[in-house]
Structures are given as structure tokens and as C-alpha cells.
What does this fold into?
Amino acid sequence: MNFLDLIWLIPLVPLFGAAVMLFFGRRLSKAAISIICPGAVGVSLLLSIAAVIQLAGLKEKIHQVTLFPWLPLMKVDMAYLLDPLSSVMILVVTGIGFLIHVYSVGYMGHEGGYYRFFGYLNLFVFFMLTLVLANSYPLLFVGWEGVGLCSYLLIGFYFNRKSAGDAGKKAFIVNRIGDAGFILGMFFLYQLTDSLKFTDVNEALRSARFGVEHSFGLLSLTALLLFVGATGKSAQIPLYVWLPDAMEGPTPVSALIHAATMVTAGVYMVARSNALFQLTPETSFIIAGVGAATSIFAASIALVQTDIKKVLAYSTVSQLGYMFVAAGVGAYWVAVFHLFTHAFFKALLFLGAGSVIHAMSGEQDMNLMGGLKNKIPITFRTMFIASLAIAGIPGLAGFFSKDEIIWQTHASPLGSNFFTVVGLITAAMTAFYMWRLMFLTFYGEGRMDEKTRHHLHESPKTMTVPLMVLAAGSVLVGWLGTPKIFGLPEFFRGFEGWLEPVFEPVKALASEGAEQPEHAFEWFMMGVSVVIAIGGIYVAKYMYTKLRRDQRPSGGMLYPVLLNKWYVDEVYDLIFIRGLSLGGGGLFAKFDREVVDGGVNGTAWTTRFVSTVSMWWDTWIVDGLVNLSAFTVRALSFPVRFLQTGLLQSYALAFVIGLLAIFGYYWVR
Amino acid sequence: MLHPITVTHYLVLSAALLLIGTLGVLLRRNAVVIMMSIELILNAVNINLIAFSEHLKTLNGQIFAIFVITVAVAEAAVGLGILIALFRNKETVLIDEIDILKW
Amino acid sequence: MLDTALFYSFALLTLLGAILTVSLRNAVNCAIALITSLAGVAGLFLLQKAEFLFAVQIVLYIGGITVLFLFVIMLVNLDQTAKQPRFGRHWMIPVLAIAGTGTLFVGFLTRGRGTLALPAPGVAADAGGNVERLSDLLFREYLVPFEVASLLLLVAIVGSVVMARKKAD
Amino acid sequence: MSVYYSSTDHFVLLPVILLALFGCATLLFDFWLFPDARQRRFLVWFLLIGEAFAGVALWRQQSFLNQHGGSINAFNGSLVVDGFSLYFHWIFLATTTLVGLISYRYFEVREEHHGEYYGLIMLAQCGMFFLASGNELVTLFIGLETMAVTFYVLVGFLRADKRSNEAALKYLLLGGFSSGFLAYGFSILYGISGSTKLNEIASAVAARDPFDPLLFLAIATILVGLFFKVSAAPFHMWTPDAYEGAPTVVTAYLAVGSKAASLALLVRLLTGALSTAHAAWEPLLIGVALLSMTVGNFAAVTQTNTKRLLAYSSINHAGYILLGLVARNTIGLQGVMIYILVYAFMNLGAFLVLTSLASKGIAGEDINDLNGLMQKSPAHALWMLVFLLSLAGIPPTAGFLGKYLIFLGLLQSGHYILAIFAALYVAVAIYYYFRLVRAMFTQKQENAVAPTTSLGMKLALGVTGVLTLVIGVYPEPWLRFAQWSITR
Amino acid sequence: MQSHILSIVLFTPLAGLLVLLLIPGQNKFLIRLWANIAAALGFLVSVPMLLSFDRAKDGYQFVERADWIPSLGVQYLIGVDGISLLMVMLTTVMGFLAIFSSWTSIKDREKEYYAMFLLQQVGMVGVFISLDFLLFYTFWELVLVPMYFIIGIWGGPRKLYAAIKFFLYTLAGGVLMLLGILTLYFQYAQQFGRYTFEIAELMKLNMPLGLQQWVFWAFFLGFAIKVPMFPFHTWLPDAHTEAPTAGSVILAAVLLKMGTYGFIRFSLPLLPNASSDRTIVTILATLSLIGILYGAFVSLVQKDWKKLVAYSSVSHLGFCTLGIFALNQNGIAGSIIQQINHGISTGMLFLIVGVIYERRHTREIKEFGGLAHVMPNYAIVFAIAMLSSAGLPLLNGFVGEFTILQGAFEANKIWAAFAVLGIIFGAAYLLWLYQRTMLGEITNEKNRGLKDLNWREWAVFVPLIIWAVTIGVYPKPYFDILEKPVAQIVHRVHQSANMPLAAATVVPPIAAEARVR
It folds into this structure.
């Protein structure tokens, strides 16, 4: 059986599951749902594995299946493309997706709208697979928008909570802002290359027609617009604001969508467009800069959060920043590698957090936890592994990928030591806040109330098994991308090799990048990062196990700033309100900003103001003009009627005056 | 002063009569007098016609004048009939008291 | 010379009568003034060699119409009307309008005097008197209007009867 | 001595002779045959038969013209039968017949003696006949007066009704006043041409400068007189009052017949005798037309009396028709002809519906009297809708055709601004026509009195309605008819 | 060979109307039944037309020609090309669904109601198939009257105001358009010595730019008011809000399209120089952009559910006009597809409002909230409609908007940049609406007992949903149908733009074939 030609089935099976759920779900039993939906993703997983294996056997590692033409005017088809990059992605999506489906069977067991949840989840998997399997930008955009929609639906799953609805809306609209950039980017790309198929676009961009653009030109603009799309989807500055709020959704959703898959779509897209970004070093620098800024910024916020999911959310933002740093410095395979490893341990962390919350009867505040180590041992152990992984302890997945990123910031021709420093600081912060989380949650005395304590219990098998599988993954997958200096067999460096055909370097950069790495320095860097990680963990341990609450350093002025997330949401508001009160000053004039803010808050003051003004315009000016006709008619009708006095002589007078006017015409003619 | 009398003299006379008649229509309140004023106007027309008739040495103008007189008669007859009908209903012939119909 | 004098005296009579018609308070007096004016016009007819019309004017107009007016004036409530003001309250604008019209009127006439050099004067009076020729013209060329006039008079008769009839049936 | 009265003369005059005959017969038989009021409705048969005879006579003229073309001159050129006059004769015939059909029920409802009525409207039609056929000033003048005097009587026909009296008096006084000016103008025309025949006047006028003072004086006074008759602003002031006060059926006849006849005269003068002096009258026409459309439209907006509203609307229509004359081209003239034809049917139809609203004790003239007509009588309401749409000029009703041709004429002659004005006023007009529509269709019915009706009314309603639609949907034959009527 | 299929499509509703008039008014069930049958027939007879349409052929098909008013050069000339074919199908489908959706919501004066709808159907089909300008104008005006009544009789509290405003506004535009038409007519007569209103003939005209511009503006007023483009849009919210549900559906789905169709069918090919004139294009594109953003902004602050949807129409139609004045294949084809999409999605949104209005008799957004709890199916349908309207990929809206944006981008990048903002706001107001009505707790006790969709409502929505999805997933047939006619228009506009006042430009070969009969 040729599974390569069946890759279109991979997304379609979950779509089928989703359709069944949405239209017939209410009539199905819970058991049936629990089989159909995870089953659908399972089938996709199997199909994916089979297809990837077959792909590996191909000489030219690329396979396209065209179903039917879609947008003929732009030569876009409904067609799927399997190549090394997308194969990594589908494995992540279906694999982790399957685990999370299984987990959800347990986690969501008590919730209403069970069928709906799984329907959305399956729909999400469909769109995500479409995104990664698409062979063209518009089709990618289908998935891109679709996952945004599912994210909206799933964040707002508890739709009777207003905050959930708001968060969902915010997510969708912020994403749309990014999408706007993405759409424009696509148009520029089409203008440049006359196609939107990845293969054609990349071929064209790598051809002699285009050279590296050193000033800010059309290529850079295109790349930047695409990157705007990526910042929206992957929660980078300035459009990251939706992701923390998105934690309103059920925890499996946070794990699947807001950690492992959807948010990485931006990274995937940048990687996919590597041919373009390689041509524009300036944009690449911007990407790396934004990534670095986001990573340290989000990490700083994560330091002080008390909500367990919020910590993980900011952590995700921070880790995504890492990925963009990698992409920005031209190390695309590393970005994808980190994406890959991060998917495992971050999904695990979220699922673990979900298990904790499950055990805590829904409580998410870490200050009210503690001492759970023995109460929920499996959760604890798996999360322990994940925390080590994300902190960058050697031997675990996170170590390899993160270390490679930090090394690439130094080694890559596009890199800069500034990024290296930021990366290291962020690494330290990561180790600290993750272990702060671990210590607050699992160690020490329990701080929960009696009732909750009474209910503490380990989660069911459906939840713990996925945790264990992911834990295994968090340990093992890193070994696919060990550093060269380890000198391990080729298998352990398989990841880079596997992706080689996709990230074919552009001629200009290839020659520059040929400089020999300094082995000693690389070892040194590795050591530094390990020390930093262990240091971070130790500081956390010291602060949260040794010190009493009041003894811990307050962080001074910084603490409230961090706790309030650098006041960004407030600043967004403040700028515009002040701008307005100044009577439309320079800031207000920046329509772009207005749109950002208006979009972000949906109901934001600015938008309301503008809309209200236009409403007034409509009611008083435009309508006024229309009704003026009616008004004028009446106004004019009055004198006419006024003259019609009913008196014969005034009629005769009008007659004579008419005659006089006619005579007069003769004389003044 | 004594220029030979031309047709223009008649025209001016007729214009004057016409205007006096018009004045009567515009100013008098009594409907009967208004009708009389209309008779004056028709007489002005007749003066014109006769003057032209003589001037042109054709009799068509005189014929026209006969018909104008006929019309005047007919109008006067009907008008007075209407006036009587109105007077029966409203007890007035003052034209500015007749203003039910307006606007 | 005599013609001139007669013209001016008839014209004076006509205008004076006319002015009195529109200005006298008592409607009966107005009617009498109207008779004066019509008589003046009749005189002018005579001056212009329209003898038949002169007769018509005297008999039909003065004898017929004016008497009709007098009847009506008697019929309607004269006493009350006679005490009322003659003119409407707003007389200024009508007077001005008519003055303006009159000025322009005269303008037309004086300016048009030159163009009154009219088409070739018709044949001078040939055989037969005024009445004869008139009747010939009337029944030959103006037969239609003549017939229509009968309809007009019929309508007038029926109309005045209809109007003046009391609501009998 | 020559023959006073030839067979041609007879052939031409026969329709009007028949009409006059039947009219007099009606007057005679009124008391003689039908002493009982209930029986008087049979008098309408006199009218119908008379019209039928007249129709046959007209048809003979029509077929003669169809065969031989040209025109028939009679009475030494006093009368002329050509396409133009026949076209109008047919309109008068149809109008009078339809008015007759709707009248008897109306007068029965109003409890008015109406024996003479049929005779009078036939005599009025005789007057109209001469207005359309006359080719000579005296005939035209006397014809006009015959019609006008009849209408004075008809307007005041409800003798017991103060409003009818008042309307008649106002109409008479102002009508006489305006006739005076018209006659004055005619006298000057005679003076400058030496003849009362239009053909000779035409050549005399052609020889003169258009702005010759005397000619202008004549044109001005004649136009003033005729503007009065067709109720064009600012000589329109009598219109609303007379329309409101007159019996509704008479209003219909006045609005359609009198107007059409006066327009016949106006068109014949302006396109015939005075056509060479167009430089003088064209601006006057433009001014009066614009003023008429403005006054008519804007004053109509706030009316609450339907007859008054339609009166103002008729002023507005006069403006449109005058614009067609301004265009001074075949299309414009064709537009005028079609407009008059269409106007006759649609306006008659509208008044007909209003007539049917009158019932014992209810004048049926207030807009509110139309309320809920759709429920009371869908047929009336729907036909009324057709008439109103047509009056407003919405395709595919007939009213559109007339407006359309007039726009066409204006554009062809380069009067773009006028065309835009005329077009925009269509939208204004919609406003008040749709007040009636609104009352009929969207308001609740208050008193469930169904409209009065009779066989004649049904018939008339059907005829006017169907024609209003048919002319709009399949205008070709009508256009050809109009075309034929203006080819000289 | 001449088939009469178009006449059949055109007059089927009229025949239905005549039969309807014969049914006594008391027999309400029969009236409803027959109206539905007639509308369904109207749809069914249009199907063979769709099937036998040959998309490979240039020019118009199913042309029928007969003299109507020969002395004025007016003909009964009808025919369809790809553009009008789609519009006709939209009309027949939406017309049927609109009538079907009224089954329970209209309870008084049903006979008149359905009669008006059938009459309107005739007018709308006529507008889209007329190839004679005067015939077109006749149908164009004919449509106004039934809609006036639909709004004025069965509408909301301010129905009379809304109805007359609608009527006045569109009529004023219409008569000015008529003057434009007549100008063309005379120009033709001057150049060719005979009078005709045939569009294909009028295209042969060679007019100076100045005159073209005048005529263009005359057309513009007629069409822009109908569309409606900013700032002529104010009749729309009133009319939409006050109209009964089915009226709003037809108004949004079909009536507004008459304006955009007018631009495509008449303004562009007949006045190619004016339409491609830089100033004019800039003005129109700017107005479209203002419309897009303005509509979206105003939608955001609406308190009335239906009014919000109405204003969203302004925004969507802004996209359509923008696409048209991009003057390229993408823009125009996208615009036409977007017109159909708007018909589907906004039609659905109005139907959705109608469903809830029928149950609760209010449209105040704040009266609702948490409806998804009691009406889950309704919430799903609403979600689909909303997403279709917001342009989610794989639903219809995206295909249209994306193609338009591409077209706009090709024409002017700034336009595309601004238009893209419209997409953001589109999502914003719709999602917010959804949130306020469907999500959250049930705040109003009155909403607790509401019934979910019944089978009849499902039957209305399902075809629309399927249609929306098929366009979204497989729009190629639509693009195929549109390819030739749009290419012709684009070619014509650009050719004359490049060769100012070139003598003969491409004229679709309509006449030759039809004359053979």
C-alpha cells in the first residue's frame, strides 16, 4: 500500500471524527465518543508513521498529492506535500495529539459538552494537519486560520464563563491581526515569484533571479509581513498577549494547542519560508531580536506568577522566543528541533499541571499547593523529568535543543553574542521558574484546605499513561540531535540530516557559514549553560524549600512590575486613553496601534469611540442629508401653502405678478 | 396736442382699460364688482379688435368682437347664477369671506 | 379734427367710467359707472365705423348684461355690503404690481408702434353697409364660431338655470 | 353666393353635431322621461350612445385620414381634422365616456339632481372638440369658452355645498380674468397679422423678429391665459381650490379633459403659428415648467386632502408636459402626446378610486379615508397602486413612458440641467404618492365601509387600469399613434 | 435554435403569482403551499439552464430577442453569460429559501406577502438577464415596489420610514441612471444613425472621455445607492432592520447585488475610459475602503442584532466594489464570488436573527446571552454563518475576500493593506456578537425555554451551509464560469485605457448567434 498517496487521509480522518461529533455527537454515548475521536487521531498517527517510513525510503524526499484545484486564479490546489519538515510536524501533531486525546478522555470525563470538546479537538487536529501538510501558502493559511478558530472554540469551551469568551475572542482577533500581515505577505510573494506553492516559491527564490537583499527592500517587506503573521500565531512581541489569557481553556487544550502544536505554526512557517528569510539578513535579525526579547521578557514574567498554568504559558512564550532566535540566526533545523523537543516536555508539563489541578479539585494557585509529591507520584515523577528537560539538564531533550540554539547564536554567521547572553540569562530564569513551580507544588507542606486535601488522588490511567509516554519522549528525543562535538554515530545526529533537503542553504550564506567551529569554546558554552541551569534549580530549591515565605527576597520594585506582566495590557490601554484625552495626539494618530489595541480588547475604548463617532456621522450627517430632502420638501412646501390663502385676490395677484415677471423678462433679457 | 388719432392711441386706451379692470379684480371685495371689472377687460379687448379692424380694413376684428361680447354675456349669466347659489348658502358676496378652500 | 376730439371725449368717458366702476362704494353706482364706460366704448366703436357693434354694445351690453348685474345686486344683500370697505386690506402690492405691468405695457406699445406698419391694408369697404358685410363674413367664414356660440349660450342658459335653481327635487 | 356648408364641412363637424344633439336630448328628456330620481341613471345611456355615434363618426374621419393622409380642412380653414386633432378627439371621447360611467353612482350618493349633468359634459366635450380642431382664433376662443363656461357650472354643480359654490365662483372669476388676457393676446395677434387664421398668423409671425414687442406682448398674454388653463405655476392657484370643491367626478373631468384640451390648443399654437418665435417663448416655458414642478411637488407633500394632493400633482405634470414642449423636437413632442394620453387614463383612474370612496355622509377626500383600502377592496387598492405608480413614473406603468420620452427629448435638445431636475423631481413626487399607498396598504382599516361601486365604475376602473398597464408594457402601437398624430 | 429557457425562468414566478391571486384569501395553508411550490418551480426551471450552460463559449447564451418597442429601438433581449448565470442562480435559490422561511413567521395578509415576493422574483431575475438597457431599467424599478411593501407592511416599528427611505433613495439614483442610459442612447444614434438600447451595440460607441465621465457618474449614483457604497448607505440599515426576515434576506442576498452587477455589466464595459480613469478609480476605491472600515466600525457599536448584520453588509459590499475597481481578473471574479458569498452568509445571518426574533420578538443584543445552552444546534448554525461571513478558509467568504484582496493588491498595494484591516474588524464584531448572544450564562430568564431549530428551519439552513462549504472547498466551477466574461470585461477596460478612444474594441458576440433563429 502506498501510504504516500494517502496522506490526504491523514487530516481527513480527524475531520470525519469532528463532523460526526458536531452533528451527531449529542446522541452518542460517552464510550463511543471516547473511541471515535482518539481513534481517529490514532489512525492518522498510524498513517503518518507509515507515510514517513515510506518517505524515508524515497530518494528525493518529497511527495505531493494533488486532490483538486482550489483557487485557480492563483494556481493554488488542494494538494498535500510530505517532506522531511512536514513529516516531523505530522508526527508531532498526530503523536502528541493522540496522547492528549487519550488524556482528555480521563480529564474531561466529568465535564458537560464532552462530544463538543472532542469534536473541536478533532477539528483542530484536522486543521493543524492541513497546516503542516499544505503544499502552498493559501492552503497553509486554511489550516492557519482553522487552528485559530479551534483555539477560539476551545478556549471558550467553558462558554458560560465570560472570561473564557473574552480570552477566546482576544486570541482570535490578535491572530487575525497577524493573519492580515500574512495575507499581504502572501500577495507580495505571489508578485515576486508568481506562485504560492512552496516548491515553486523556494525554487524561484533560490534561483539566480534573487540575490541577498542587504537593504530593506521588497523581499524584506515580504518576509517581515509573513513574520507578522508568525508573531500572531506564535505569540511573540507585540502580539503575545493572547496566549496567557488562552489558559482559560481546558488544560489538555493548553497542552495540545497552546504548547505543542498550534503556537509552533509560526516557527514552522518561518522554517518553511527559509529560502525567503535567508535572502533578507535584516529581517532575520529582526526575527532573532524579537525572539530574544520575547524569550527573556516572558521568562521574567514567569518568575513571579502564582497560577500554575500561567507560569507554563509564559514559559511557552519564552521557549517560542528561543525557536525564533534559532530561526533568526539561520539555524532552521535547530528551531524545528527545539520545537520538536519542546512539544514533548511542554505538553507533559501542561498535562502534568492538568493532573495536579485535577487532583486539587480545580485549584490553580501554587500558593495553595505543596507537598503533592507523594499524593500523586506518577504525576510528580513525570513532571520532574520534564522540568529537568526544560531546565536544560544534560541527557534530556531540552538540553540538546536549547544548547544547540545558544551555540548557534554564537556560531552562525547571522548570530550575535548579544543573543547568546540573552539566551543564557533566559536559560537561568527558565531553570529557576520551573523549579520554583516544582517546589511550590510538590515539596514542602500542603497549603490547601482540608476539603481539597481530602480529595487528593492520583489521576486515572488514561491520564497517567500519556504522561509516562511523554516523559519517555522528553528523555529520548533529544538524542536525535546531539552536538557534533559529541562525536556520536550519525543516528544521533539524524535530525539535522533528515531536514537537510528542506533547508538547503542559499549560496551567499553557505560560503560565509563555512567557518570552522571552535570545539573548545563549544564545550565551554555547554558547560556554562549546564552550570546556569543547575544554578537556577538550586536557587529555586533554596528559596522555596529552605526559606520561609517572609524570608524570601521580595524582588523589590521589580516584583510588582513582573507580577503585573510589565503592565503591558495596561500600557496598551493607557496609551490610547491618554492619546484621546489629549485630543488625538500623535499616538492616537497611529492608526495601526489603534487597530492593535482595538483588536486586542475587542470592546476597547478606542474602537468604541471611533465607531460611536461614525455612528453619529451616520445618524446626524448622512442621515441628516437624506432626511434633508424630506425636511426641505416640508420647508419648501410651507411657503407654497402659505400663499394658497384661499383668497381669490391673492390668486389673481399671483397671476399678475407672473405676467409682470414674463414682461420683465422681455426687458431685462 | 391734437395728433391724428392712430391705432396706437386705441391700444393705449385699451391697455389702460385692461389695467383698470385688473385693478378692480385685484382690489374689490364685492364679487359682482369683480365681474364688472372682467367686463371692462373684455371691453379693452374689443377696443383693440375694432381699432385693428379699422386699421386693417378687414371686418374680422368686428366679428371677433361680437363673439367676445357673446362670451361676456355667457360668463356674466353663469357667473351671476353661481353667485346667487353661493349667496343662498353663505349670505355674502364679499370675496375675502369666501375662503373655506385654501392651502 | 372732430374725430380726434370725439376720440378723446369717448376715451375720457370710458376711462372715467371704468375708474368709477372699480372705485365706487355702492355696487349699484358701480353698475351705473360701468354703463357709462360701456357707452364710451360704444362711442369708440362708432368712431371706428363699427356701427353694428355699436348697436350690439348698446342693446346687449348695456341693456342686457348691466341690467343683469343690477338685478343681482338687488337680489343679494345690498345694504350690508354697501357699508363694508370697498377694497381688500392689502392694496399696496396689487397696485404696485399693476403699476409695473402698466409701465411695461406702455413700453411694449410704444416700442411696438413702429412695427405696426401692418400687412397690406385690406380692400376698402366695397359694396354694402357694415352690417351686410359683417353678416356675409359671419355666415361664410365664421360659421363655425357662430354655431359654437349657440352652444355656448345654451350652456350659459342651462348653467345659470341650474345654478340659480333652488334645491327643488 | 357660395355654398355655406359643404359635405366636407359636414363630415368634419358630424361628431360634434351628434354630441350636441345627444346633449340637448339629455337636457330635454331629463324631466320629461325620467321624473323619478331613481331613473335618472338611465340618462347615462344617452351619453354612451351619443359617444358611440360620435365615435363612429370619428372613426370614419380616422379611416379617411389613414387612406388619404394629410388633413381635412373645413369651413374655409376654420376647422382642420388632422392626426393631431383626432388624437385629442379620441382622448376626449374616452375621457367623457369614462367620466359619464363613474358619475351616476356618485351623484346618487350625493343625492344631487344630475339630469343636466350628462348634457353638460357632452357640451363641454363639444367645446374641447373645437379646441383641438380649431384652426382659427375665433373658433378656438369660443370653443375654449364653451368648455370653460360648462366647467364653471359643473364645478359648482353641488349647489347645496358651500365648497362647490366657492370653487365655482373662484374658478369663474379667475377663469374670466384669464380669458380676458387670452383674448387680448388674440386681438394683438389679429392686429399684427390681419387675420384670425392660424396659417396666416404663422406666416406673419415668421416674418417678425421673435422679440418684436407686439408679438411678445401677444405671446405673453396668450401664454398666461393658457398657463392658467393647464394650471401651470404661478397661474395655478385656482387649481387646488377648484379641484377640492368640485364634485369628484367633475374634478376628474376637469383634471383630464379640460387640461388635455387646453394643452391641445397650447401645443397647436406653439408648434404651429408661434413656432418661429420659439426664442421668445422657450425661456418662459422653462421657467414656468420648473416653477410648476417645484410648486406642484412641494406643495403636494403636506396635503391631507387627496383631491388637493392630486391637484398639486397635476400642476407638477403640467410642468413635465411643458418641458416636452421646451425640447422642441419630435421625441419631445411625441412625449407630450403620449404623456397627455397616459395622464388622462391614470389620473382618471386615480380620481375614479377616490370617487368610489365617497359614500353617504363621507366625502372620501381625506387621506385617512383611504386607510385599509387593501382590506376593504383589494381591487380598488391595487388599481390605485397602478395609477399612483404610473403618476410617479415607475416602469413598467404607462406614466414612465411619457416621462421617459420627455427626458429623451430634453437630452436630445441638450437641456441636461432640466433633465436632471425633471428626473430628481420624480423622486420627490414618489414621496407624496406613496403617502396614499401607505394609507391604503399599511394603515389599519378603521371603518369597514367598502367603497361604493357600480357596473359603470367597475368598467371604467378596468379600462383605465388595463390601459395604464398596457400602454406601459406594450407601448409600441400607442407610440405609433402618437407619432402619427404629430406628423404633419 | 433558440431555447426559451430564460423566458421560462423569468416568468415562472409571474405565472405562480397569477395562480396565487386566484386562491381565496382565507385558505392560508393553500396560499403558503402554492407560494412555496411556485418558488420551488422557479428554482427548478433554472437548474436546466445551469446544466446546459456552456462555459467554454464566449459571450451570451440562451439569447432571446424580440421587438418590444421598435420605434424606440427597445427590444426584449435577454441572455446570460457566466456573471449573470451565477446571479440568476443566487436569485432563484435565495428567493425560494426566503419564501420557505416565511412559513410560520408571516401570519397576516399572507396572500399579498407571497404575491410581493413572487413579483419581486420576476424583477430580480429580469435585472440579471436583460441585455437591453431599457428592459433592464424597467426591471430595476419594478423591484422597488414589492420591496417597499414587504418592508412597509410586514416590517418592524419604523417600517414606513424605512420603506419610503429605501424607495426614495434608490429611485433617485435610478432616474439619474436613466439619464445616463439615455445619453448613451443618443450618442449611439448620433454615431450610427439608429436608436437602440442593446448593450452589445452600445459597446461599439466611441465617446469622448468627458462625456463618459458624466455618464459614469450618472450610473454611479444609480448603482452606488443600490450597493450601497459609502456615503449612500444610510437607507440600508433602516431597510434591513425594519424588513421582515425574508425581506432582509432577499434585500441583502440579491437586491444589493443589482448595484454591483450594474457596475460590472454596464459601467465597466460601456464606459471603459471613464471606469479606468485614474481619478474615478481612486475615488471609488477610496469609498469602498471607507465602506469596508466604516461598516465594520459601526457594526461594533450596534445594540440591535439585525442592525449589526446590516452594517456588516456595508463592509462586505465594500469588498465587492473594491474588487470591481481593481479592474483585473482577480478583483472582478473575486467580487462576483464574494457577492454570492455575501448572499449566502448574510442571508443566513438574517435568517438566524429571524429565528430568534420569531421566538422572542426582540432583537436587542442585551436581551440575549448564553443561547448556546438552550439552542445548541442554533449556535452551531450561527457559528458557521458567522465564520462564513468572517471569511474563514474552507468556507465561502474566504475565497471571495482572498481573491478580491489579491486583485486589489495587484491594483494598488495600499488598498489591499487597508482592506485587510476590514478582515480583522469583521472577525471582531462578529465574534463579539456571537459571544454576547450565544455564550456565557443565560442572563435572561425569558430565554430559558426557547426551542431549538425545528425541521423547517433546518431545511432552510442546510442547503445554505452546504453551498457555503462547497464554494469554500471547491470554488473552481465558479471561477471557470466567470473566467471568460470577466476576462472580456478586463480586456475591454484595459484595452481602451491603453488606447484612449480606440475605435472598435472587443464586443461579445451576442448578436450574431441570436439573429440566426
Q: What stands out?
A: The mean pLDDT of chain B is 87. The domain at 7-97 of chain B is CATH 1.10.287.3510 (Helix Hairpins). Helices of chain B lie at 7-27, 31-56, 60-90. DSSP finds three helices and no strands in chain B.
